[in-house]
Amino acid sequence: MFSFMKFNVLQQDLLPGIQAVARSVGVRSTLPVLGNILLSAEGQKLKISATNLEIGIVKYLNVEVESSGEITVPAKTLVELVSGLGPNKVTLQSEGEMLTVESGKFKATVNGIAAAEFPAIPLSEDKGVSFPKEAFLTSSQILFASAVDEGRPVLTGILTEASDGRLDFVATDGFRLAHRQFDLPKGKMQFKSLIPRRTFEELLRLLSEEEVEEVSIATSQNQNQAVFSIGNTVVSSRLIEGQFPAWGKIIPEKIVARALINKEELLQAIKLAAVFAKNEANVVVLTTKKGLLKIESHAKELGSQENEIEGEIEGEELTIAFNTKFILDAVSNAPSTQIMMEFSGALSAVLIKPVGVAGLQYIVMPVRLS
Known about the structure:
The N and C termini lie far apart (72 Å). The chain has helices spanning 11-22, 75-83, 133-137, 197-209, 263-277, 324-333; strands at 4-10, 36-42, 45-51, 55-62, 64-67, 69-74, 89-95, 98-103, 106-111, 129-132, 157-163, 166-172, 176-183, 191-196, 214-219, 225-230, 233-238, 257-262, 283-289, 292-299, 303-310, 312-315, 319-323, 338-343, 350-354, 360-364. The longest helix has 15 residues, at 263-277. The radius of gyration is 25 Å and the shape is elongated. The protein is an alpha+beta fold. Helix 5 packs antiparallel against helix 6. The protein folds into three domains: 4-117, DNA Polymerase III, Chain A, domain 2 (Roll), CATH 3.10.150; 129-248, DNA Polymerase III, Chain A, domain 2, CATH 3.10.150; 251-364, DNA Polymerase III, Chain A, domain 2, CATH 3.10.150. Residues 5-122 form the DNA polymerase III beta sliding clamp N-terminal domain.
């Protein structure tokens, strides 16, 4: 059966919608329809959808619909076409598997694929739980700690849990951990899922584009998808299956030394240490002394360096080694001018806290010195 569709929309309204959705098309897919955007016009709304089967995005726009219908067209072609039109009224009309785009004296026809071949994007009937947009944006401070290697899929996800009036985001790759906690209004809010890091990165991009107050999350009917609602946009993401580590047990409890230092001074010192750490398993050695933090690194072929930073350092004198990159990532992501490092022994994890930022902590496991 042929599908006829016709609607009118302003180019400046259509372009941001198709650009946002186009980021989720399946680029290297064997299914050609996954490289397409689905356009569905009904009522006075246009529904724009794309998916790569891991993440799907649906955006709703108000348009002037003359005839309801749907078609899928190549995402790249549509974005390039609409980008080049300039701010004018655009008429899109489909007949069968062909889309006509008209604006002023311009007219183009694009070969599409029938909408029936487009995979369904799982959505949720459930309202789910809602968080302030600000709470969700803070997840950007912890994403770096999740694993990139697909060898342990559970570590590539971000644990997202709401319960007892708090929201926790946790990321770990087994060598370091980042935890962001946010207080929520007390209530019966319960949600726990392991969400791919790529989904978070896409959601953070969408949040910077949408003027909204809150984000809501629900799970799909079969419980294997998380469905996010952000204003006029819905994002559906597959969930990662498996058991996330018992992260609460990793947080050091017994603190034997503390160092309160200027973030920029520490960052500069670690970057300098990294020059000599590259060849020797990327190791930097920290020594706590009263009022001083000593930072050393060496490489057999290159040479060595040592540096001292002044700060409020108290407790036991310790010498402890870390992977330079892990310390660097934690310190550079901390949104503060001062850093508190809490040590629980020469072979125990260090707790790194941005001073003045409640609910954010980084944990880095030490390296054994041979």
